[in-house]
Amino acid sequence: MSIKIAIVDDKFVNRNIIKNKLLAYGHFEIVLMAENGSDFLQKMKTLNPKERPDVALIDLEMPELDGVDTIAAATTLYPNIKYVVLTIFDDEDKIFKAIKAGAFGYLLKDENAENIGDMLWQMHESGAGPISPGIAHKILQLIQNNKLTILKKDTVTEKILFELTDRETEILKLLVKGLAYKEIGQELGISPNTAKKHVINVYQKLHVNSRVQALHLAQEKGLL
Amino acid sequence: MSIKIAIVDDKFVNRNIIKNKLLAYGHFEIVLMAENGSDFLQKMKTLNPKERPDVALIDLEMPELDGVDTIAAATTLYPNIKYVVLTIFDDEDKIFKAIKAGAFGYLLKDENAENIGDMLWQMHESGAGPISPGIAHKILQLIQNNKLTILKKDTVTEKILFELTDRETEILKLLVKGLAYKEIGQELGISPNTAKKHVINVYQKLHVNSRVQALHLAQEKGLL
DNA sequence: CTGCAAGTAATCCAAATGGATAATATATTT
DNA sequence: AAATATATTATCCATTTGGATTACTTGCAG
Protein backbone atom coordinates (compact mmCIF):
# COMPACT_ATOMS: atom_id res chain seq x y z
CA MET A 1 0.00 0.00 0.00
CA SER A 2 1.43 3.31 -1.04
CA ILE A 3 1.18 6.48 1.01
CA LYS A 4 -1.15 9.11 -0.40
CA ILE A 5 0.44 12.54 -0.44
CA ALA A 6 -0.85 16.07 -0.96
CA ILE A 7 1.54 18.85 -1.94
CA VAL A 8 0.69 22.45 -1.16
CA ASP A 9 3.19 25.00 -2.48
CA ASP A 10 2.73 28.23 -4.37
CA LYS A 11 5.66 27.68 -6.70
CA PHE A 12 5.06 25.43 -9.67
CA VAL A 13 8.69 24.31 -9.81
CA ASN A 14 8.70 23.37 -6.16
CA ARG A 15 5.59 21.28 -6.52
CA ASN A 16 7.17 19.41 -9.36
CA ILE A 17 10.51 18.92 -7.70
CA ILE A 18 8.87 17.48 -4.63
CA LYS A 19 6.54 15.35 -6.69
CA ASN A 20 9.37 13.88 -8.70
CA LYS A 21 11.50 13.27 -5.65
CA LEU A 22 8.72 11.31 -4.00
CA LEU A 23 7.67 9.40 -7.08
CA ALA A 24 11.27 8.42 -7.68
CA TYR A 25 11.50 7.17 -4.15
CA GLY A 26 8.55 4.85 -4.65
CA HIS A 27 5.99 4.01 -1.96
CA PHE A 28 4.33 7.37 -2.57
CA GLU A 29 1.33 8.40 -4.57
CA ILE A 30 0.51 12.06 -5.20
CA VAL A 31 -3.23 12.52 -4.89
CA LEU A 32 -3.51 16.27 -4.65
CA MET A 33 -1.51 19.36 -5.60
CA ALA A 34 -2.52 22.84 -4.58
CA GLU A 35 -0.95 26.25 -4.85
CA ASN A 36 -2.17 27.70 -1.57
CA GLY A 37 -4.25 26.92 1.47
CA SER A 38 -7.58 27.96 0.00
CA ASP A 39 -6.91 25.92 -3.10
CA PHE A 40 -6.03 22.96 -0.91
CA LEU A 41 -9.15 23.16 1.23
CA GLN A 42 -11.22 23.67 -1.89
CA LYS A 43 -9.82 20.58 -3.55
CA MET A 44 -10.13 18.53 -0.38
CA LYS A 45 -13.86 19.11 -0.40
CA THR A 46 -14.13 17.44 -3.77
CA LEU A 47 -12.47 14.24 -2.54
CA ASN A 48 -14.44 11.51 -0.91
CA PRO A 49 -12.92 10.15 2.30
CA LYS A 50 -11.24 7.18 0.65
CA GLU A 51 -9.36 9.41 -1.75
CA ARG A 52 -8.03 11.78 0.88
CA PRO A 53 -4.28 11.99 1.41
CA ASP A 54 -2.56 10.40 4.38
CA VAL A 55 0.00 13.15 4.49
CA ALA A 56 -0.12 16.79 3.43
CA LEU A 57 3.18 18.54 2.71
CA ILE A 58 2.64 22.22 3.27
CA ASP A 59 4.80 25.19 2.46
CA LEU A 60 4.60 28.12 4.85
CA GLU A 61 4.68 31.30 2.83
CA MET A 62 1.82 31.28 0.39
CA PRO A 63 -0.69 33.82 -0.85
CA GLU A 64 -4.40 33.53 -0.06
CA LEU A 65 -4.05 31.33 3.01
CA ASP A 66 -0.62 30.71 4.46
CA GLY A 67 0.68 27.41 5.75
CA VAL A 68 0.05 28.04 9.42
CA ASP A 69 -3.57 29.02 8.97
CA THR A 70 -4.06 26.19 6.53
CA ILE A 71 -2.82 23.66 9.04
CA ALA A 72 -4.89 25.18 11.81
CA ALA A 73 -8.06 24.94 9.77
CA ALA A 74 -7.29 21.58 8.21
CA THR A 75 -6.55 19.84 11.50
CA THR A 76 -10.09 20.47 12.65
CA LEU A 77 -11.63 19.57 9.33
CA TYR A 78 -9.50 16.51 8.60
CA PRO A 79 -7.87 15.44 11.85
CA ASN A 80 -6.67 12.11 10.50
CA ILE A 81 -4.28 13.61 8.01
CA LYS A 82 -0.66 14.18 9.02
CA TYR A 83 0.32 17.73 8.19
CA VAL A 84 4.01 18.13 7.56
CA VAL A 85 5.60 21.50 6.98
CA LEU A 86 8.03 21.49 4.07
CA THR A 87 9.68 24.84 3.74
CA ILE A 88 12.88 26.84 3.56
CA PHE A 89 12.12 28.86 6.68
CA ASP A 90 13.81 27.88 9.88
CA ASP A 91 13.18 30.80 12.19
CA GLU A 92 11.88 30.11 15.65
CA ASP A 93 8.71 32.02 15.23
CA LYS A 94 7.54 30.11 12.18
CA ILE A 95 8.54 26.78 13.64
CA PHE A 96 6.69 27.45 16.83
CA LYS A 97 3.55 28.75 15.20
CA ALA A 98 3.39 25.86 12.79
CA ILE A 99 3.69 23.35 15.59
CA LYS A 100 1.03 25.08 17.63
CA ALA A 101 -1.21 25.12 14.60
CA GLY A 102 -0.96 21.36 14.55
CA ALA A 103 1.98 20.45 12.32
CA PHE A 104 2.94 16.81 12.74
CA GLY A 105 6.40 17.30 11.32
CA TYR A 106 8.70 20.02 10.06
CA LEU A 107 11.06 19.42 7.19
CA LEU A 108 13.46 21.77 5.49
CA LYS A 109 13.60 21.85 1.73
CA ASP A 110 17.35 21.63 1.67
CA GLU A 111 17.15 18.05 2.80
CA ASN A 112 18.33 15.91 -0.06
CA ALA A 113 15.88 13.80 -1.94
CA GLU A 114 16.37 10.52 -0.13
CA ASN A 115 16.14 12.18 3.22
CA ILE A 116 12.68 13.58 2.64
CA GLY A 117 11.44 10.28 1.32
CA ASP A 118 13.20 8.45 4.14
CA MET A 119 11.75 10.64 6.80
CA LEU A 120 8.23 10.39 5.46
CA TRP A 121 8.57 6.65 5.23
CA GLN A 122 9.98 6.47 8.72
CA MET A 123 7.03 8.49 9.92
CA HIS A 124 4.73 5.94 8.40
CA GLU A 125 6.61 3.10 10.06
CA SER A 126 7.15 4.52 13.50
CA GLY A 127 4.28 6.96 13.82
CA ALA A 128 6.67 9.70 14.90
CA GLY A 129 6.54 13.05 13.17
CA PRO A 130 9.49 13.78 10.87
CA ILE A 131 11.68 16.68 11.90
CA SER A 132 14.78 17.96 10.19
CA PRO A 133 17.82 17.80 12.46
CA GLY A 134 18.36 21.54 12.28
CA ILE A 135 14.81 22.18 13.42
CA ALA A 136 15.02 19.76 16.31
CA HIS A 137 18.23 21.43 17.32
CA LYS A 138 16.60 24.85 17.31
CA ILE A 139 13.82 23.63 19.54
CA LEU A 140 16.35 22.25 21.99
CA GLN A 141 18.07 25.60 22.04
CA LEU A 142 14.77 27.29 22.79
CA ILE A 143 14.24 25.04 25.76
CA GLN A 144 17.78 25.54 26.99
CA ASN A 145 17.49 29.29 26.74
CA ASN A 146 14.37 29.25 28.84
CA LYS A 147 12.31 30.57 25.98
CA LEU A 148 10.26 27.43 26.18
CA THR A 149 9.09 26.30 29.55
CA ILE A 150 7.11 23.37 30.80
CA LEU A 151 3.80 23.93 32.45
CA LYS A 152 3.00 21.63 35.30
CA LYS A 153 -0.33 20.05 34.76
CA ASP A 154 -2.05 18.82 37.88
CA THR A 155 -3.63 15.42 38.06
CA VAL A 156 -6.55 14.59 35.87
CA THR A 157 -9.30 14.05 38.35
CA GLU A 158 -11.53 11.55 36.66
CA LYS A 159 -14.83 12.54 38.15
CA ILE A 160 -17.99 11.20 36.67
CA LEU A 161 -20.19 14.08 37.72
CA PHE A 162 -22.96 13.41 35.29
CA GLU A 163 -24.02 9.82 35.03
CA LEU A 164 -23.59 9.38 31.33
CA THR A 165 -23.78 5.85 30.04
CA ASP A 166 -20.94 4.46 27.94
CA ARG A 167 -22.89 5.02 24.79
CA GLU A 168 -23.72 8.55 25.77
CA THR A 169 -20.10 9.36 26.49
CA GLU A 170 -19.21 7.99 23.10
CA ILE A 171 -21.86 10.17 21.54
CA LEU A 172 -20.60 13.18 23.42
CA LYS A 173 -17.11 12.67 22.06
CA LEU A 174 -18.36 12.68 18.50
CA LEU A 175 -20.58 15.63 19.23
CA VAL A 176 -17.60 17.59 20.44
CA LYS A 177 -15.77 16.86 17.23
CA GLY A 178 -18.47 18.69 15.34
CA LEU A 179 -20.36 15.79 13.79
CA ALA A 180 -24.00 16.09 12.75
CA TYR A 181 -26.62 13.48 13.63
CA LYS A 182 -26.20 11.90 10.26
CA GLU A 183 -22.45 11.60 10.67
CA ILE A 184 -22.68 10.28 14.21
CA GLY A 185 -25.07 7.66 12.95
CA GLN A 186 -22.67 6.63 10.22
CA GLU A 187 -19.72 6.59 12.60
CA LEU A 188 -21.46 4.27 15.05
CA GLY A 189 -23.50 2.31 12.57
CA ILE A 190 -26.83 3.40 13.97
CA SER A 191 -29.72 5.44 12.65
CA PRO A 192 -29.35 9.21 12.74
CA ASN A 193 -32.63 9.20 14.66
CA THR A 194 -31.06 7.10 17.34
CA ALA A 195 -28.02 9.31 17.38
CA LYS A 196 -30.32 12.25 17.91
CA LYS A 197 -32.14 10.51 20.71
CA HIS A 198 -28.85 9.91 22.47
CA VAL A 199 -27.75 13.47 21.97
CA ILE A 200 -30.93 14.80 23.48
CA ASN A 201 -30.58 12.42 26.41
CA VAL A 202 -27.09 13.74 26.96
CA TYR A 203 -28.40 17.29 26.93
CA GLN A 204 -30.94 16.43 29.57
CA LYS A 205 -28.37 14.82 31.81
CA LEU A 206 -26.03 17.78 31.42
CA HIS A 207 -28.90 20.22 31.73
CA VAL A 208 -27.97 22.04 28.55
CA ASN A 209 -29.81 22.52 25.32
CA SER A 210 -27.31 23.00 22.57
CA ARG A 211 -24.14 21.53 21.18
CA VAL A 212 -21.97 24.45 22.12
CA GLN A 213 -23.20 24.47 25.68
CA ALA A 214 -22.55 20.76 25.96
CA LEU A 215 -19.06 21.19 24.57
CA HIS A 216 -18.45 24.03 26.97
CA LEU A 217 -19.44 21.92 29.90
CA ALA A 218 -17.50 18.90 28.73
CA GLN A 219 -14.44 21.08 28.29
CA GLU A 220 -14.67 22.74 31.68
CA LYS A 221 -15.36 19.63 33.67
CA GLY A 222 -13.10 17.47 31.62
CA LEU A 223 -15.52 14.64 31.04
CA LEU A 224 -14.26 13.53 27.68
CA MET B 1 40.71 13.84 12.40
CA SER B 2 38.60 11.45 14.38
CA ILE B 3 36.04 12.50 16.94
CA LYS B 4 37.00 11.81 20.54
CA ILE B 5 34.23 10.17 22.51
CA ALA B 6 33.53 9.53 26.19
CA ILE B 7 31.05 6.87 27.24
CA VAL B 8 29.32 7.08 30.61
CA ASP B 9 27.09 4.12 31.46
CA ASP B 10 26.74 2.00 34.56
CA LYS B 11 26.35 -1.27 32.69
CA PHE B 12 29.54 -2.89 31.45
CA VAL B 13 27.77 -4.54 28.52
CA ASN B 14 26.26 -1.28 27.37
CA ARG B 15 29.58 0.47 27.43
CA ASN B 16 31.05 -2.23 25.28
CA ILE B 17 28.19 -2.40 22.84
CA ILE B 18 28.37 1.33 22.27
CA LYS B 19 32.12 1.28 22.02
CA ASN B 20 32.09 -1.45 19.41
CA LYS B 21 29.33 0.19 17.42
CA LEU B 22 31.29 3.39 17.19
CA LEU B 23 34.64 1.82 16.50
CA ALA B 24 33.10 -0.23 13.73
CA TYR B 25 31.64 2.91 12.22
CA GLY B 26 35.06 4.53 12.04
CA HIS B 27 35.73 8.25 12.53
CA PHE B 28 35.43 7.75 16.26
CA GLU B 29 37.99 7.30 19.00
CA ILE B 30 36.99 6.29 22.51
CA VAL B 31 39.06 8.27 24.96
CA LEU B 32 37.17 7.69 28.19
CA MET B 33 34.77 5.17 29.71
CA ALA B 34 33.09 5.72 33.05
CA GLU B 35 30.45 3.88 35.03
CA ASN B 36 28.73 6.87 36.56
CA GLY B 37 28.87 10.64 36.81
CA SER B 38 31.37 10.76 39.66
CA ASP B 39 33.62 8.35 37.90
CA PHE B 40 33.39 10.43 34.74
CA LEU B 41 34.25 13.71 36.45
CA GLN B 42 37.06 12.00 38.32
CA LYS B 43 38.61 10.65 35.16
CA MET B 44 38.15 13.93 33.34
CA LYS B 45 40.43 15.58 35.89
CA THR B 46 43.24 13.29 34.95
CA LEU B 47 43.12 14.27 31.30
CA ASN B 48 44.97 17.25 30.01
CA PRO B 49 42.93 19.56 27.75
CA LYS B 50 44.20 18.06 24.49
CA GLU B 51 43.05 14.61 25.49
CA ARG B 52 39.55 15.62 26.47
CA PRO B 53 36.65 14.17 24.52
CA ASP B 54 34.69 16.21 21.96
CA VAL B 55 31.53 14.37 22.79
CA ALA B 56 30.29 12.67 25.96
CA LEU B 57 27.61 10.02 25.63
CA ILE B 58 25.77 9.85 28.91
CA ASP B 59 23.23 7.42 30.23
CA LEU B 60 20.56 8.79 32.52
CA GLU B 61 19.96 6.28 35.28
CA MET B 62 23.18 5.71 37.10
CA PRO B 63 24.25 5.31 40.73
CA GLU B 64 26.42 7.89 42.48
CA LEU B 65 25.67 10.74 40.13
CA ASP B 66 22.91 10.42 37.58
CA GLY B 67 23.01 11.67 34.02
CA VAL B 68 21.13 14.90 34.53
CA ASP B 69 23.27 16.01 37.42
CA THR B 70 26.38 14.92 35.59
CA ILE B 71 25.52 17.03 32.59
CA ALA B 72 24.61 19.98 34.75
CA ALA B 73 27.95 19.84 36.51
CA ALA B 74 30.04 19.02 33.46
CA THR B 75 28.68 21.82 31.31
CA THR B 76 30.10 24.35 33.69
CA LEU B 77 33.40 22.52 34.11
CA TYR B 78 33.92 21.67 30.44
CA PRO B 79 31.60 23.83 28.36
CA ASN B 80 33.25 22.93 25.07
CA ILE B 81 32.22 19.30 25.21
CA LYS B 82 28.98 18.24 23.59
CA TYR B 83 26.94 16.23 26.04
CA VAL B 84 24.63 13.77 24.36
CA VAL B 85 22.16 11.68 26.30
CA LEU B 86 22.14 8.05 25.23
CA THR B 87 19.50 6.14 27.11
CA ILE B 88 16.48 3.91 26.98
CA PHE B 89 14.23 6.40 28.75
CA ASP B 90 11.86 8.45 26.68
CA ASP B 91 9.53 9.98 29.24
CA GLU B 92 8.81 13.68 29.04
CA ASP B 93 10.19 14.47 32.41
CA LYS B 94 13.61 12.98 31.79
CA ILE B 95 13.85 14.49 28.34
CA PHE B 96 13.00 17.91 29.58
CA LYS B 97 15.28 17.81 32.58
CA ALA B 98 18.21 16.57 30.54
CA ILE B 99 17.81 19.35 28.02
CA LYS B 100 17.56 21.97 30.70
CA ALA B 101 20.66 20.54 32.29
CA GLY B 102 22.47 21.27 29.07
CA ALA B 103 22.21 18.18 26.91
CA PHE B 104 23.20 18.92 23.35
CA GLY B 105 21.44 15.89 21.97
CA TYR B 106 19.20 13.05 23.06
CA LEU B 107 19.50 9.61 21.53
CA LEU B 108 17.65 6.43 22.28
CA LYS B 109 19.57 3.20 22.63
CA ASP B 110 17.23 1.34 20.39
CA GLU B 111 18.57 3.25 17.42
CA ASN B 112 20.47 0.82 15.27
CA ALA B 113 24.23 1.00 15.07
CA GLU B 114 24.56 3.06 11.92
CA ASN B 115 22.01 5.55 13.09
CA ILE B 116 23.89 6.45 16.23
CA GLY B 117 27.11 6.78 14.32
CA ASP B 118 25.36 8.70 11.57
CA MET B 119 23.76 11.09 13.94
CA LEU B 120 26.95 11.78 15.83
CA TRP B 121 28.78 12.32 12.58
CA GLN B 122 26.04 14.59 11.32
CA MET B 123 26.30 16.57 14.51
CA HIS B 124 29.97 17.06 13.84
CA GLU B 125 29.29 18.19 10.30
CA SER B 126 26.31 20.47 10.84
CA GLY B 127 26.76 21.55 14.41
CA ALA B 128 23.20 20.57 15.20
CA GLY B 129 22.52 18.40 18.21
CA PRO B 130 21.47 14.82 17.40
CA ILE B 131 17.96 13.87 18.44
CA SER B 132 16.20 10.56 17.93
CA PRO B 133 13.03 10.93 15.87
CA GLY B 134 10.86 9.58 18.64
CA ILE B 135 12.22 12.18 21.05
CA ALA B 136 11.72 15.05 18.65
CA HIS B 137 8.20 13.81 18.15
CA LYS B 138 7.53 13.82 21.87
CA ILE B 139 8.73 17.37 22.18
CA LEU B 140 6.42 18.44 19.39
CA GLN B 141 3.56 16.79 21.20
CA LEU B 142 4.44 18.66 24.34
CA ILE B 143 4.32 21.94 22.51
CA GLN B 144 1.06 21.06 20.82
CA ASN B 145 -0.58 20.08 24.08
CA ASN B 146 0.36 23.40 25.59
CA LYS B 147 2.54 21.67 28.13
CA LEU B 148 5.45 23.58 26.69
CA THR B 149 4.87 27.20 26.06
CA ILE B 150 6.99 29.94 24.65
CA LEU B 151 8.02 32.81 26.83
CA LYS B 152 8.76 35.98 25.00
CA LYS B 153 8.78 39.46 26.31
CA ASP B 154 10.52 41.27 23.48
CA THR B 155 8.54 40.19 20.46
CA VAL B 156 5.10 41.45 19.73
CA THR B 157 2.90 38.54 20.59
CA GLU B 158 0.71 38.25 17.59
CA LYS B 159 -1.50 35.30 18.18
CA ILE B 160 -3.66 36.70 15.45
CA LEU B 161 -4.14 33.49 13.59
CA PHE B 162 -6.68 34.10 10.85
CA GLU B 163 -7.21 37.76 10.27
CA LEU B 164 -10.37 38.27 12.24
CA THR B 165 -11.45 41.85 12.79
CA ASP B 166 -12.01 43.12 16.32
CA ARG B 167 -15.72 42.79 15.93
CA GLU B 168 -15.40 39.28 14.61
CA THR B 169 -13.20 38.25 17.51
CA GLU B 170 -15.79 39.68 19.85
CA ILE B 171 -18.48 37.71 18.09
CA LEU B 172 -16.40 34.56 18.26
CA LYS B 173 -16.05 34.90 22.00
CA LEU B 174 -19.79 35.07 22.46
CA LEU B 175 -20.30 32.25 20.02
CA VAL B 176 -17.99 30.09 22.08
CA LYS B 177 -20.04 30.81 25.16
CA GLY B 178 -23.01 29.21 23.49
CA LEU B 179 -25.09 32.25 22.64
CA ALA B 180 -27.63 32.21 19.82
CA TYR B 181 -27.83 34.94 17.17
CA LYS B 182 -30.57 36.64 19.13
CA GLU B 183 -28.53 36.69 22.32
CA ILE B 184 -25.38 37.88 20.60
CA GLY B 185 -27.40 40.70 19.13
CA GLN B 186 -28.74 41.67 22.53
CA GLU B 187 -25.32 41.44 24.10
CA LEU B 188 -23.76 43.79 21.56
CA GLY B 189 -26.78 45.96 20.95
CA ILE B 190 -27.04 45.00 17.30
CA SER B 191 -29.61 43.20 15.21
CA PRO B 192 -29.59 39.40 15.32
CA ASN B 193 -29.31 39.59 11.55
CA THR B 194 -26.08 41.47 11.90
CA ALA B 195 -24.83 39.03 14.48
CA LYS B 196 -25.57 36.23 12.08
CA LYS B 197 -23.74 37.98 9.27
CA HIS B 198 -20.67 38.34 11.46
CA VAL B 199 -20.84 34.72 12.51
CA ILE B 200 -20.95 33.55 8.94
CA ASN B 201 -18.05 35.82 8.05
CA VAL B 202 -16.08 34.25 10.87
CA TYR B 203 -16.89 30.80 9.57
CA GLN B 204 -15.59 31.72 6.18
CA LYS B 205 -12.36 33.10 7.56
CA LEU B 206 -11.85 29.99 9.68
CA HIS B 207 -12.95 27.68 6.88
CA VAL B 208 -15.46 25.91 9.03
CA ASN B 209 -19.21 25.65 8.78
CA SER B 210 -20.65 25.15 12.21
CA ARG B 211 -20.45 26.48 15.72
CA VAL B 212 -18.86 23.39 17.13
CA GLN B 213 -16.15 23.34 14.49
CA ALA B 214 -15.42 27.00 15.11
CA LEU B 215 -15.28 26.42 18.83
CA HIS B 216 -13.03 23.46 18.26
CA LEU B 217 -10.63 25.52 16.23
CA ALA B 218 -10.71 28.49 18.57
CA GLN B 219 -10.11 26.26 21.55
CA GLU B 220 -7.27 24.27 20.06
CA LYS B 221 -5.40 27.11 18.50
CA GLY B 222 -6.06 29.52 21.29
CA LEU B 223 -7.39 32.44 19.34
CA LEU B 224 -9.65 33.82 22.01
C1' DC C 1 -40.67 -14.50 35.78
C1' DT C 2 -40.95 -9.65 35.95
C1' DG C 3 -39.49 -5.15 35.69
C1' DC C 4 -36.24 -1.71 34.77
C1' DA C 5 -32.44 0.46 32.35
C1' DA C 6 -30.17 1.02 28.11
C1' DG C 7 -30.10 1.01 23.27
C1' DT C 8 -32.48 1.29 19.10
C1' DA C 9 -35.83 3.60 15.84
C1' DA C 10 -39.42 6.61 14.02
C1' DT C 11 -42.56 10.66 13.59
C1' DC C 12 -44.26 15.46 14.13
C1' DC C 13 -43.15 20.15 14.73
C1' DA C 14 -41.27 24.61 15.94
C1' DA C 15 -37.13 26.98 16.16
C1' DA C 16 -32.48 27.87 14.96
C1' DT C 17 -28.79 27.61 11.86
C1' DG C 18 -25.91 28.18 7.53
C1' DG C 19 -25.53 30.09 3.09
C1' DA C 20 -26.20 33.48 -0.52
C1' DT C 21 -27.04 38.01 -1.71
C1' DA C 22 -28.05 42.94 -1.51
C1' DA C 23 -28.04 47.39 0.43
C1' DT C 24 -26.43 51.23 3.42
C1' DA C 25 -23.27 53.82 6.49
C1' DT C 26 -18.80 55.06 8.12
C1' DA C 27 -14.40 55.26 8.45
C1' DT C 28 -9.54 54.98 6.60
C1' DT C 29 -6.35 54.88 2.91
C1' DT C 30 -4.60 56.10 -1.46
C1' DA D 1 -12.37 62.09 -4.92
C1' DA D 2 -12.24 57.32 -5.22
C1' DA D 3 -11.32 52.94 -3.46
C1' DT D 4 -11.24 49.85 0.39
C1' DA D 5 -12.38 47.75 4.77
C1' DT D 6 -15.59 47.31 8.40
C1' DA D 7 -19.99 47.33 10.38
C1' DT D 8 -24.68 47.35 9.95
C1' DT D 9 -29.46 45.49 8.47
C1' DA D 10 -32.48 42.62 5.83
C1' DT D 11 -34.70 38.72 3.12
C1' DC D 12 -35.10 34.09 1.01
C1' DC D 13 -34.50 29.31 1.62
C1' DA D 14 -32.94 24.66 2.53
C1' DT D 15 -31.13 22.06 6.18
C1' DT D 16 -30.30 21.00 10.87
C1' DT D 17 -31.38 21.02 15.49
C1' DG D 18 -33.88 20.50 19.75
C1' DG D 19 -37.94 18.69 22.01
C1' DA D 20 -41.72 15.51 22.94
C1' DT D 21 -43.67 11.19 22.35
C1' DT D 22 -44.23 6.34 21.21
C1' DA D 23 -42.50 1.70 20.60
C1' DC D 24 -39.58 -2.41 20.16
C1' DT D 25 -35.52 -5.14 21.73
C1' DT D 26 -32.02 -6.83 24.91
C1' DG D 27 -29.73 -7.79 29.23
C1' DC D 28 -29.65 -7.92 33.94
C1' DA D 29 -31.34 -7.72 38.97
C1' DG D 30 -34.72 -8.78 42.16
Q: What does this 3D model show about the protein?
A:
The structure is a homodimer of 224-residue chains. By secondary structure, chain A is α/β, with parallel strands linked by helices. Chain A has 2 domains: 3-144, Response regulator (Rossmann fold, 3-Layer(aba) Sandwich), CATH 3.40.50; 166-221, Arc Repressor Mutant, subunit A. The first copy, chain A, is 52% helix and 13% strand. Chain A has helices at residues 12-25, 37-46, 67-77, 92-101, 113-126, 133-144, 166-176, 181-188, 192-206, 211-221; strands at residues 3-8, 28-34, 55-58, 82-87, 105-108, 148-150. In chain A, strands 2-1-3-4-5 form a 5-stranded parallel sheet, with helices on both faces. In chain A, helix 2 (37-46) runs parallel beside helix 3. Chain A is globular and about 55 Å long. Chain A starts with a strand and ends with a helix. Chains A and B meet through helix 3, helix 4, helix 5, helix 6 and strand 6 of A and helix 4, helix 5, helix 6, strand 6 and helix 10 of B. Strand 6 of chain A pairs antiparallel with strand 6 (148-150) of chain B, so a sheet runs across the interface. Chain B binds a DNA duplex (30 and 30 nucleotides) through helix 7 and helix 9.
List descriptors.
homodimer; 224 residues; alpha/beta; Rossmann fold; Arc Repressor Mutant, subunit A; 2 domains; 10 helices; 52% helix; globular; DNA-binding
Query: What would you call the quaternary organization?
Result: homodimer
Provide the CATH top-level class of the largest domain in chain A: Alpha Beta
- Tell me the CATH topology of the largest domain in chain A: Rossmann fold
Mean pLDDT score of chain A: 82
What gyration radius of chain A follows from the Cα positions, in whole Å? 21 Å
**N- and C-termini, Cα separation of chain A:** 34 Å
Provide the CATH architecture of the largest domain in chain A: 3-Layer(aba) Sandwich
As residue ranges, the low-confidence spans of chain A are 152-160
